[in-house]
Amino acid sequence: MIKEGEKLPDATLFEYVEDDRAGCTIGPNSFDVREQTAGKRVVIFGLPGAFTPTCSAKHVPGYVERAEQLRAAGIDEIWCVSVNDAFVMGAWGRDQHTSGKVRMMADGSAAFTRALGLEQDLSGRGMGIRSQRYAMVVDDGVVKTLNVEAAGKFEVSDAASILATLR
What we know:
The protein is an alpha+beta fold. It contains 6 helices and 9 strands, in the order E-E-H-E-H-H-E-H-E-H-E-E-E-E-H. Thiol-specific peroxidase that catalyzes the reduction of hydrogen peroxide and organic hydroperoxides to water and alcohols, respectively. Plays a role in cell protection against oxidative stress by detoxifying peroxides.
């Protein structure tokens, strides 16, 4: 598992872009993790799946609600990463009203999640390989804070817990 003080792995994530912007097309776009975190402070939180109960009712809404507080504490971007495709993450972002607050980053093949060492096998529940629930603060590509939840818990990866580490 990745540790505090280590650089993020070389990986690509995908984001469904819904508006015209420089260098992007409407639809799924690929983004290099190291390039996207260079020179920035980013909160990355991972969760088991889009549209799942705790993720939709608590995890994502907490970051949406506290996005401005996190920015005021020096965070440049907030990313939600899940082992889903960019189309699903885009739809989930629309449902959760994340636009301008949380980037919904798809890790469809779990390559980033595996490189972090934060995967879990939920095949027995029909979900396949998914992400553990976690949150990290990344500064210029280096993990400064890493909070990984115990199985079935939601106590340390929420927005309030991350905000507390920044104060």
